[in-house]
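Bench log, entry 3. Co-assembly request; chain sequences pasted below exactly as received.
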Amino acid sequence: MKARNKFLLGGVLVLSTASYLMASSIDETATYYLTPAELASKVSDNPRFVKNGVKVGARVVSGSIVREPSGRSVMFKMTDGTKTYDVKHTGIVPDTFTDGVDVVVEGRLDANGTFQSTILLAKCASRYENAPDKYPDTPGYKQGMPATPRA
Amino acid sequence: MILVGELSLWVALLMAAWTTTVSFSGGLQGRPDLVKSGERALYATFGFTLLASIGLWTALFMHDFSIKFVASYTSTNLPKIYTFTAFWAGQSGSMLFWALILTAYSAIAVFSNRKTNRAMMPYVTGTLGIICLFFLMTMCFGANPYERLDWIPPEGRGMNPQLQNPGMAIHPPMLYLGLVGTAIPFAFAIGALVTRQLDAQWLGAVRRWALLSWFFLTIGIVLGMWWAYVELGWAGYWAWDAVENSSFLPWLTITAFLHSIMIQEKRGMLRKWNVTLVAMSFLLTILGTFITRSGIIESVHAFAQSPVGDWFLVFLIAAAVATAYLVSTRLNDLQANAELESMVSREAAFLYNNLVLIGICFATLWGVLFPILSEWVKGDKITVGPPFFNAVNGPLGLLLLALTGIGPLIAWRRASTTNLKRQFTWPVISGVVTFTVLFALGMRQMYALVSYLLAGFVFGTIIQEFVKGIDARRRMYGEGLFSASMRLVGRNRRRYGGYIVHFGVAILFCAFAGLMFKKDLTATLKAGESVKAKDAYGSEWVFTSQGISSFEQLNRRVVAASFNVTRDGKNMGILSSEKRQHVNAAGEATFEPSTEVGILESPKQDVYLVFTGAVDRETAAIHINFNPLVWWVWFGGIIMAFGGLIVMWPQALRAEREGGYVAELPSESTATLVGAGA
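Structure output for the full assembly:
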């Protein structure tokens, strides 16, 4: 066999191993990423869906956060405007978690319809944008003066 | 100055447009006057972008809060250093920073090639012009850093406390210096494709830029890991997050290119592949920017859903189509002039190295894009998490580590059995001994054992190469040990610098494997109470609470929990973790409180303590992590950067120029003067 073909054979072997690893592990770790409304409709279509772990992206309802003093768990409500869920999160609470932020929670619904979350990611729109629409609400910056007209 | 800066941005845009038009038409019509004008316009583009940047820095330092960018990311009480780095803390500023580096790189690349590669250069200049034009346009019309507010706030919003960290101050510039660097090789590849000068001429101009890019990306990625580790409080440094991945992807293709370029130089093979790798690196950079700025993919890093993303998508598609067209119409010119002779040869080892790197790249990209793809195909957004990336990239990474050890040992073209025996004996022994010792010490995790076996093999390879080289010099020139090792590296920077990089890589793998032995616990302690814990090495630790204290510091209010730490009864000092509430000049709270972790660092392991919350005024809830070998991640990163520096060191460049850049050497001359392993 020519060296070139041997190499190609080896290459195919490597790539097919990689593809196999990809295919087999995707099934194990793939997680639905849903909005609260989508989660509700999945559950009403198929009640067994509750058993699946899912990720939900939603916004924290302002004023709904109840923190346990140890900082290890927190309860809040999340919503996408159409459907609201109670969430009980146990685990690391990121510093950026606060009223009105967008969060991604990972976990599952329990029998009472509360979302039991184990992973909580909070997006503070700060890395690239400081949430410009919220800017005027920031305490202390309300009393700005109108801009002087520029030449 | 601020107004000058604002106007300069628009002038730079015009200059970039002029560069593009004039360079391409000058090249096509063969008119040196137009080509010259294009090059000058490119220098001018850099000049005006620099003015625009100075203008923004001026606005930041003068606290001109009528500019939205300044008001959004700084405040009057922000420390000076962070006022300076606020330049790249937000979308539009970071775009300007990107453009600044891009135009500077372009100007340097065009200037240093003003006498060489004449046929190709108009197209190189033109391509760079297009890229500059794109960035400047995106800024002027999509995300202008000079955008005004219609009112002037008395105080700015300040910088997110998590970004007020030295790592975060340097990490973005390093990453940008690396990512932007991929544009230069890409422009040369386009120039070479258009003019069909595809032998090896363009490689000489490109290799140094690819190396530079690799160097900064490596530093940038490791700094990013360090930042995430010390700042985010989850005791890890890599989460396979979309944003992390998007800097990792071009790093993989550049690494592949830096290896495969050697095959083209020595054997004239892999021409198509090299062009493809260069193009892929650039396209992946743009794709990464698109992913991170468009908000299309969920990420821990927060991004606005800004229109800038669409601009990048359009640019990405246009660049990909143009490259694909050029490559497909020039396949004949890209024909290799040699063939693989044997599977047991360095060429084959390098080819497999490329294959594995691209495999990792593809798997990672697949994981990143999976939510989008699944939404297209099935209508449901499905995400994959770290287990996916670890399951695929773990084995591939180990294969790569093995190749890191094998590559340097095999001869070019065809290795003989005696060559193999002579070369492999000691490295293999080194690997097996490492494995046996660790197994005897009681380590049973297969993954970790294999990592250490392979790392031992790689260390063996590198040490053997150095010993042989130094030994040869001492015999040939009668040099002392020190001068022989200095000259060995000095005279063969590419080779031995490369080995030092490999050394760093192997150290990193050892450090990664260390995390398989991490342990953690949580506790709630009143002042005076203590908690006991055992680490992976079997030592017993005792943490005794010293209570909670509150104080004010710089621009923040701090609540700190401190613990007295002992290991096996030996006092290790005090470890504190803080909750910080940042305040503005008026003393009002800004942002959410941030957590500052306490880390007791040592090469053996880090003790990583997080103050999660105060239950009452004297009771602290904490999370303690024992993270073995994390210290070696930073050390390995430094070694890799150091090796890269040796390879890049300018003296090698001068020697190259004196001798003329010798590419596609006949294979007889590949045996280097000394330290020949072949």
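The two ends of chain A are 78 Å apart (CA to CA). Chain A touches chain B through 61 residues (CB under 8 Å).
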